[in-house]
Amino acid sequence: METKSWVVVMDKIYINRANIITPLGNSVESNWEQLVLGNSGISKINSFGHLKNFYAGQINDTQFRNLKEQVIDNKYYTRLEILGISSLFQIIDQSKINLKTGFVLSTTKGNINELSNSLEKASIPLFAKKIADYFGFKTEPIIVSNACVSGVLAVNIAKRFIEMDFFEDVYVLALDELTDFVLTGFNSFQAMDFEQCKPFDKDRKGVNLGEAAACIYVSKKEESNVFQILGEATINDANHISGPSRTGEGLVLSIENALKEAHLTADKIDYISAHGTATMYNDEMETIAFNRLEMQDIPTNSLKAFFGHTLGASGLLELILAMKQAQENVVLKSLNFNELGTSVVQNIVKENLNKAVNYILRTSSGFGGSNAVIILKKVKND
Protein backbone atom coordinates (compact mmCIF):
# COMPACT_ATOMS: atom_id res chain seq x y z
CA MET A 1 0.00 0.00 0.00
CA GLU A 2 1.42 3.28 -1.05
CA THR A 3 1.66 5.90 1.63
CA LYS A 4 1.88 9.58 0.97
CA SER A 5 3.28 12.22 3.26
CA TRP A 6 1.66 15.62 3.34
CA VAL A 7 3.44 18.78 4.35
CA VAL A 8 1.18 21.60 5.43
CA VAL A 9 2.72 24.98 4.68
CA MET A 10 1.08 27.72 6.73
CA ASP A 11 0.85 31.31 5.57
CA LYS A 12 3.32 33.73 7.08
CA ILE A 13 1.86 35.84 9.86
CA TYR A 14 3.32 39.22 10.77
CA ILE A 15 3.20 41.72 13.62
CA ASN A 16 3.05 45.00 11.73
CA ARG A 17 2.25 47.83 14.12
CA ALA A 18 2.52 48.32 17.86
CA ASN A 19 1.92 50.85 20.60
CA ILE A 20 2.31 50.97 24.37
CA ILE A 21 1.24 53.24 27.21
CA THR A 22 3.25 53.01 30.45
CA PRO A 23 4.42 55.39 33.18
CA LEU A 24 7.41 56.12 30.91
CA GLY A 25 5.36 57.39 27.98
CA ASN A 26 2.53 56.96 25.50
CA SER A 27 4.43 55.40 22.60
CA VAL A 28 7.13 52.84 21.87
CA GLU A 29 9.59 55.61 21.01
CA SER A 30 9.03 57.66 24.17
CA ASN A 31 9.44 54.53 26.28
CA TRP A 32 12.57 53.52 24.39
CA GLU A 33 14.22 56.89 25.04
CA GLN A 34 13.87 56.29 28.77
CA LEU A 35 14.77 52.60 28.73
CA VAL A 36 18.14 53.05 27.02
CA LEU A 37 19.03 55.58 29.72
CA GLY A 38 18.16 53.06 32.41
CA ASN A 39 15.21 55.08 33.71
CA SER A 40 12.45 53.14 35.44
CA GLY A 41 8.72 53.81 35.52
CA ILE A 42 8.59 52.39 39.03
CA SER A 43 8.39 54.88 41.88
CA LYS A 44 7.61 54.93 45.58
CA ILE A 45 3.93 55.17 46.45
CA ASN A 46 3.15 56.51 49.90
CA SER A 47 -0.38 55.16 50.11
CA PHE A 48 -2.70 53.18 47.84
CA GLY A 49 -5.74 51.35 49.20
CA HIS A 50 -4.62 49.17 52.10
CA LEU A 51 -0.89 49.45 51.39
CA LYS A 52 1.63 52.11 52.33
CA ASN A 53 5.22 52.86 51.35
CA PHE A 54 5.83 50.46 48.46
CA TYR A 55 7.12 50.62 44.89
CA ALA A 56 5.00 50.22 41.77
CA GLY A 57 4.63 51.43 38.20
CA GLN A 58 1.73 53.87 38.09
CA ILE A 59 0.52 56.16 35.29
CA ASN A 60 0.21 59.56 36.98
CA ASP A 61 -2.86 61.79 36.96
CA THR A 62 -1.42 64.34 34.52
CA GLN A 63 -0.50 61.68 31.97
CA PHE A 64 -3.94 60.10 32.29
CA ARG A 65 -5.81 63.41 31.96
CA ASN A 66 -3.98 64.14 28.71
CA LEU A 67 -5.04 60.76 27.36
CA LYS A 68 -8.61 61.16 28.57
CA GLU A 69 -9.04 64.50 26.79
CA GLN A 70 -8.46 62.80 23.44
CA VAL A 71 -11.22 60.20 23.94
CA ILE A 72 -14.65 61.13 22.58
CA ASP A 73 -17.44 61.00 25.21
CA ASN A 74 -14.82 60.08 27.79
CA LYS A 75 -17.27 60.35 30.70
CA TYR A 76 -18.79 57.02 29.63
CA TYR A 77 -15.51 55.11 29.99
CA THR A 78 -13.54 53.85 32.97
CA ARG A 79 -9.90 54.69 33.53
CA LEU A 80 -8.76 51.33 32.14
CA GLU A 81 -11.03 51.59 29.12
CA ILE A 82 -9.54 55.00 28.33
CA LEU A 83 -6.03 53.55 28.54
CA GLY A 84 -7.01 50.79 26.10
CA ILE A 85 -8.75 53.14 23.67
CA SER A 86 -5.83 55.58 23.77
CA SER A 87 -3.35 52.80 23.04
CA LEU A 88 -5.29 51.33 20.11
CA PHE A 89 -6.01 54.74 18.62
CA GLN A 90 -2.35 55.04 17.53
CA ILE A 91 -2.32 51.92 15.32
CA ILE A 92 -5.89 51.27 14.22
CA ASP A 93 -7.30 51.94 10.76
CA GLN A 94 -11.06 52.10 11.35
CA SER A 95 -11.85 52.42 7.64
CA LYS A 96 -10.57 48.88 7.04
CA ILE A 97 -12.36 47.10 9.89
CA ASN A 98 -14.70 44.48 8.47
CA LEU A 99 -16.29 41.11 9.29
CA LYS A 100 -12.90 39.42 8.84
CA THR A 101 -11.14 41.71 11.32
CA GLY A 102 -10.74 40.26 14.79
CA PHE A 103 -10.27 41.90 18.16
CA VAL A 104 -8.51 39.95 20.93
CA LEU A 105 -8.33 41.46 24.41
CA SER A 106 -5.99 40.27 27.17
CA THR A 107 -6.57 41.18 30.80
CA THR A 108 -6.45 39.43 34.15
CA LYS A 109 -8.75 41.70 36.13
CA GLY A 110 -10.39 44.20 33.76
CA ASN A 111 -12.58 46.71 35.62
CA ILE A 112 -12.19 44.96 38.97
CA ASN A 113 -12.35 48.38 40.66
CA GLU A 114 -16.02 48.60 39.64
CA LEU A 115 -16.95 45.48 41.59
CA SER A 116 -17.91 47.45 44.69
CA ASN A 117 -20.42 49.42 42.63
CA SER A 118 -21.90 46.76 40.37
CA LEU A 119 -21.23 43.20 39.25
CA GLU A 120 -22.22 44.17 35.72
CA LYS A 121 -19.76 47.08 35.57
CA ALA A 122 -16.95 44.70 36.55
CA SER A 123 -17.86 42.33 33.71
CA ILE A 124 -14.87 41.66 31.43
CA PRO A 125 -17.11 40.91 28.39
CA LEU A 126 -18.80 44.30 28.85
CA PHE A 127 -15.40 45.95 29.26
CA ALA A 128 -14.15 44.39 25.99
CA LYS A 129 -17.38 45.24 24.14
CA LYS A 130 -17.18 48.92 25.07
CA ILE A 131 -13.68 49.21 23.63
CA ALA A 132 -14.63 47.21 20.53
CA ASP A 133 -17.71 49.37 19.90
CA TYR A 134 -15.68 52.56 20.23
CA PHE A 135 -13.72 51.59 17.13
CA GLY A 136 -16.58 49.89 15.28
CA PHE A 137 -15.41 46.28 15.35
CA LYS A 138 -18.02 44.10 13.65
CA THR A 139 -17.14 40.84 15.39
CA GLU A 140 -17.43 39.85 19.03
CA PRO A 141 -14.28 40.48 21.08
CA ILE A 142 -12.27 37.40 22.00
CA ILE A 143 -11.18 37.59 25.64
CA VAL A 144 -8.02 35.96 26.95
CA SER A 145 -7.78 35.92 30.74
CA ASN A 146 -5.30 33.24 31.72
CA ALA A 147 -3.19 34.68 34.51
CA CYS A 148 0.12 36.28 33.56
CA VAL A 149 0.52 34.41 30.26
CA SER A 150 -2.53 36.22 28.85
CA GLY A 151 -0.57 38.80 26.83
CA VAL A 152 1.57 36.29 24.94
CA LEU A 153 -1.31 33.83 24.65
CA ALA A 154 -3.49 36.52 23.05
CA VAL A 155 -0.93 36.96 20.27
CA ASN A 156 -0.70 33.20 19.78
CA ILE A 157 -4.48 32.96 19.52
CA ALA A 158 -4.62 35.82 17.01
CA LYS A 159 -2.07 34.00 14.85
CA ARG A 160 -4.07 30.78 14.96
CA PHE A 161 -7.34 32.47 13.99
CA ILE A 162 -5.62 33.99 10.94
CA GLU A 163 -4.05 30.65 10.01
CA MET A 164 -7.52 29.05 10.13
CA ASP A 165 -8.88 31.84 7.86
CA PHE A 166 -11.36 32.77 10.58
CA PHE A 167 -9.93 36.29 10.41
CA GLU A 168 -7.79 38.09 7.84
CA ASP A 169 -6.29 40.44 10.41
CA VAL A 170 -6.48 40.91 14.17
CA TYR A 171 -5.90 43.73 16.62
CA VAL A 172 -4.59 42.52 19.99
CA LEU A 173 -4.95 44.70 23.07
CA ALA A 174 -3.46 43.77 26.46
CA LEU A 175 -4.04 45.86 29.57
CA ASP A 176 -4.37 45.89 33.34
CA GLU A 177 -4.25 48.62 35.97
CA LEU A 178 -2.94 49.00 39.48
CA THR A 179 -5.73 48.27 41.96
CA ASP A 180 -6.12 47.64 45.67
CA PHE A 181 -7.50 44.18 44.81
CA VAL A 182 -4.31 43.17 42.97
CA LEU A 183 -1.93 44.78 45.46
CA THR A 184 -3.49 43.16 48.52
CA GLY A 185 -3.70 39.84 46.71
CA PHE A 186 -0.01 39.70 45.86
CA ASN A 187 0.87 41.00 49.30
CA SER A 188 -1.12 38.16 50.88
CA PHE A 189 1.08 35.72 48.93
CA GLN A 190 4.11 37.46 50.45
CA ALA A 191 5.27 37.87 46.86
CA MET A 192 5.91 41.63 46.86
CA ASP A 193 9.19 43.46 47.31
CA PHE A 194 8.61 46.74 49.15
CA GLU A 195 11.82 48.07 47.59
CA GLN A 196 12.61 48.10 43.87
CA CYS A 197 12.48 44.58 42.44
CA LYS A 198 15.62 42.75 41.27
CA PRO A 199 14.85 40.02 38.71
CA PHE A 200 17.26 37.04 38.82
CA ASP A 201 19.40 38.72 41.47
CA LYS A 202 20.56 36.94 44.64
CA ASP A 203 18.88 39.64 46.74
CA ARG A 204 15.50 39.49 45.00
CA LYS A 205 12.48 39.37 47.29
CA GLY A 206 9.47 39.55 44.99
CA VAL A 207 7.54 41.61 42.47
CA ASN A 208 6.72 45.25 42.06
CA LEU A 209 3.34 45.64 40.37
CA GLY A 210 2.48 48.01 37.56
CA GLU A 211 -0.03 49.05 34.92
CA ALA A 212 0.12 49.43 31.16
CA ALA A 213 -1.70 49.05 27.88
CA ALA A 214 -0.10 47.47 24.81
CA CYS A 215 -1.44 46.65 21.37
CA ILE A 216 -0.39 45.19 18.01
CA TYR A 217 -1.80 44.62 14.54
CA VAL A 218 -1.40 41.07 13.22
CA SER A 219 -2.00 40.03 9.59
CA LYS A 220 -0.70 38.10 6.59
CA LYS A 221 0.33 41.36 4.95
CA GLU A 222 3.91 42.45 5.36
CA GLU A 223 4.37 46.14 6.11
CA SER A 224 7.66 47.87 6.94
CA ASN A 225 9.76 47.03 10.02
CA VAL A 226 7.76 43.91 10.77
CA PHE A 227 8.30 40.67 12.65
CA GLN A 228 7.18 37.25 11.49
CA ILE A 229 5.68 34.90 14.05
CA LEU A 230 7.68 31.72 13.48
CA GLY A 231 6.41 29.56 16.31
CA GLU A 232 4.41 29.61 19.52
CA ALA A 233 3.06 27.26 22.14
CA THR A 234 1.29 27.14 25.46
CA ILE A 235 1.46 24.20 27.87
CA ASN A 236 0.11 24.01 31.40
CA ASP A 237 2.01 21.71 33.76
CA ALA A 238 -0.70 22.10 36.47
CA ASN A 239 2.02 22.13 39.12
CA HIS A 240 0.29 24.32 41.71
CA ILE A 241 -2.41 26.96 41.97
CA SER A 242 0.20 29.71 42.38
CA GLY A 243 3.69 28.15 42.36
CA PRO A 244 5.63 27.25 39.18
CA SER A 245 7.03 23.80 38.46
CA ARG A 246 10.35 23.26 40.20
CA THR A 247 11.70 21.58 37.05
CA GLY A 248 10.31 24.06 34.52
CA GLU A 249 8.46 21.24 32.80
CA GLY A 250 5.67 23.25 31.18
CA LEU A 251 8.03 26.00 30.03
CA VAL A 252 10.49 23.48 28.58
CA LEU A 253 7.75 21.75 26.60
CA SER A 254 6.35 25.08 25.40
CA ILE A 255 9.74 26.25 24.12
CA GLU A 256 10.42 22.87 22.47
CA ASN A 257 7.09 23.01 20.64
CA ALA A 258 7.63 26.60 19.52
CA LEU A 259 11.13 25.79 18.24
CA LYS A 260 9.72 22.81 16.35
CA GLU A 261 7.08 24.94 14.63
CA ALA A 262 9.70 27.59 13.85
CA HIS A 263 12.08 24.96 12.41
CA LEU A 264 14.83 26.37 14.60
CA THR A 265 17.33 24.90 17.01
CA ALA A 266 17.80 26.57 20.39
CA ASP A 267 21.20 27.97 19.47
CA LYS A 268 19.63 30.15 16.73
CA ILE A 269 17.84 32.33 19.30
CA ASP A 270 19.67 35.65 19.67
CA TYR A 271 17.84 37.01 22.70
CA ILE A 272 15.47 35.77 25.41
CA SER A 273 12.89 38.17 26.82
CA ALA A 274 12.14 36.36 30.07
CA HIS A 275 9.13 36.67 32.37
CA GLY A 276 11.53 37.41 35.26
CA THR A 277 9.13 38.49 38.02
CA ALA A 278 11.86 38.66 40.71
CA THR A 279 10.11 36.08 42.88
CA MET A 280 12.31 33.33 44.24
CA TYR A 281 10.41 30.53 42.51
CA ASN A 282 9.69 32.04 39.07
CA ASP A 283 13.25 33.15 38.30
CA GLU A 284 14.65 29.83 39.52
CA MET A 285 12.18 27.89 37.37
CA GLU A 286 12.93 29.89 34.23
CA THR A 287 16.68 29.48 34.47
CA ILE A 288 16.29 25.73 35.06
CA ALA A 289 14.11 25.50 31.95
CA PHE A 290 16.59 27.46 29.84
CA ASN A 291 19.45 25.28 31.07
CA ARG A 292 17.57 22.09 30.25
CA LEU A 293 17.39 23.36 26.65
CA GLU A 294 21.06 24.50 26.66
CA MET A 295 20.03 28.14 26.30
CA GLN A 296 21.96 29.41 29.32
CA ASP A 297 24.46 31.40 27.22
CA ILE A 298 21.86 33.36 25.27
CA PRO A 299 21.59 37.02 26.38
CA THR A 300 18.54 37.24 28.65
CA ASN A 301 16.78 40.08 30.40
CA SER A 302 13.66 40.92 32.37
CA LEU A 303 11.93 44.29 32.02
CA LYS A 304 9.96 44.00 35.27
CA ALA A 305 12.23 46.46 37.10
CA PHE A 306 11.35 49.09 34.47
CA PHE A 307 7.55 48.72 34.61
CA GLY A 308 6.63 46.36 37.41
CA HIS A 309 4.54 43.29 36.70
CA THR A 310 1.68 44.56 34.55
CA LEU A 311 -0.19 41.22 34.67
CA GLY A 312 -2.31 40.73 31.53
CA ALA A 313 -0.38 43.47 29.73
CA SER A 314 3.11 42.22 30.62
CA GLY A 315 3.55 39.57 27.92
CA LEU A 316 2.58 41.86 25.06
CA LEU A 317 4.24 44.96 26.50
CA GLU A 318 7.55 43.15 26.84
CA LEU A 319 7.18 41.41 23.46
CA ILE A 320 6.78 44.80 21.77
CA LEU A 321 9.89 46.08 23.53
CA ALA A 322 11.75 42.90 22.56
CA MET A 323 10.91 43.81 18.96
CA LYS A 324 12.21 47.33 19.52
CA GLN A 325 15.46 45.95 20.95
CA ALA A 326 15.85 43.80 17.84
CA GLN A 327 15.20 46.78 15.57
CA GLU A 328 17.85 48.79 17.39
CA ASN A 329 20.21 45.80 17.82
CA VAL A 330 20.46 46.63 21.52
CA VAL A 331 19.59 44.23 24.33
CA LEU A 332 18.61 46.25 27.38
CA LYS A 333 20.14 45.54 30.74
CA SER A 334 18.10 43.69 33.31
CA LEU A 335 17.68 46.63 35.65
CA ASN A 336 18.77 46.17 39.30
CA PHE A 337 20.56 42.90 38.49
CA ASN A 338 24.00 42.62 40.09
CA GLU A 339 24.73 39.01 41.04
CA LEU A 340 23.02 35.85 39.85
CA GLY A 341 20.77 34.31 42.47
CA THR A 342 19.64 31.06 40.84
CA SER A 343 20.98 27.54 41.24
CA VAL A 344 22.04 27.34 37.58
CA VAL A 345 23.85 29.83 35.37
CA GLN A 346 22.13 32.16 32.94
CA ASN A 347 23.49 35.01 30.82
CA ILE A 348 21.53 37.86 32.42
CA VAL A 349 22.44 41.15 30.75
CA LYS A 350 23.95 43.62 33.26
CA GLU A 351 24.61 46.52 30.87
CA ASN A 352 23.01 47.49 27.57
CA LEU A 353 24.45 45.14 24.96
CA ASN A 354 25.01 46.06 21.32
CA LYS A 355 24.15 42.87 19.47
CA ALA A 356 22.52 41.80 16.22
CA VAL A 357 19.12 40.34 17.12
CA ASN A 358 17.21 38.46 14.43
CA TYR A 359 15.42 35.74 16.41
CA ILE A 360 13.59 36.48 19.67
CA LEU A 361 12.18 34.10 22.26
CA ARG A 362 9.59 35.60 24.59
CA THR A 363 8.42 33.56 27.58
CA SER A 364 5.62 34.01 30.11
CA SER A 365 4.55 31.87 33.04
CA GLY A 366 1.71 32.28 35.51
CA PHE A 367 -0.56 30.90 38.18
CA GLY A 368 -1.98 27.43 37.75
CA GLY A 369 1.13 26.18 35.97
CA SER A 370 0.40 28.16 32.80
CA ASN A 371 3.16 28.87 30.27
CA ALA A 372 3.13 30.61 26.89
CA VAL A 373 6.00 31.35 24.52
CA ILE A 374 6.46 32.93 21.11
CA ILE A 375 9.36 33.11 18.65
CA LEU A 376 9.71 36.06 16.29
CA LYS A 377 11.95 36.70 13.31
CA LYS A 378 12.98 40.21 12.32
CA VAL A 379 12.09 40.82 8.67
CA LYS A 380 14.74 42.79 6.86
CA ASN A 381 13.28 45.18 4.31
CA ASP A 382 15.12 45.95 1.09
Automatic annotation (TrEMBL):
Q: Where do the Ketosynthase family 3 (KS3) domain residues begin and end?
A: 10-378
Q: State any single GO MF term.
A: 3-oxoacyl-[acyl-carrier-protein] synthase activity
Any one of the GO BP annotations: fatty acid biosynthetic process
Swiss-Prot/TrEMBL keywords: Transferase
Family annotation (Pfam families): ketoacyl-synt, Ketoacyl-synt_C
Question: What does UniProt give as GO cellular component?
Answer: cytosol
Q: What is the similarity comment for this entry?
A: Belongs to the thiolase-like superfamily. Beta-ketoacyl-ACP synthases family.
Protein name as annotated: 3-oxoacyl-[acyl-carrier-protein] synthase-1
Species, as recorded: Algoriella xinjiangensis
